[in-house]
Amino acid sequence: MPVPTKLNPSKNVPKQHADVEQAVQTPAERGLPALAAFLAGDPDSETYIFRKFSVLTARHLVHLQCELLELEQQLKSLDDDLNTKGDLQATLSFRDWDEFIANAEDQSRGEWKLNQLVQKIGHKLEEYRKKLRVKPEVKMS
Length: 141
Prior knowledge:
The chain is an all-alpha fold. It has 2 domains: 1-50, no CATH class; 54-134, no CATH class. The chain has helices spanning 15-24, 32-40, 54-84, 88-93, 97-104, 110-134. The radius of gyration is 28 Å and the shape is elongated. The chain starts with 14 loop residues before the first helix and ends in a 7-residue tail after the last helix. The mean pLDDT is 82.
């Protein structure tokens, strides 16, 4: 849809809008910079209408959910491996935070892998929740 401003001189601009455009637009502004200046200069913000990209937002949220589901499965699998290993230190790690932290410093141990995975999950959850806050009509379950 053509914007009735100096951006498109073929359109007639009503007299009451011409003064607003004159005040906002400098001769060097054309195209998107001029449109942005016009929108920002609207004192009532009536022209402040933007597309939500709902489908793209939903698609991105679905991809993030899939990533989180995969990470959740990896966590369950790693928990199962550590629980069925028969390793006394691993068993203690599940019951004692200090033991877990001590074992998680050794990169050859499962606790280290578990700690890395939990941190990765934390970052992904933070990203996911931040995206949900941007889309306020999303209901969390």
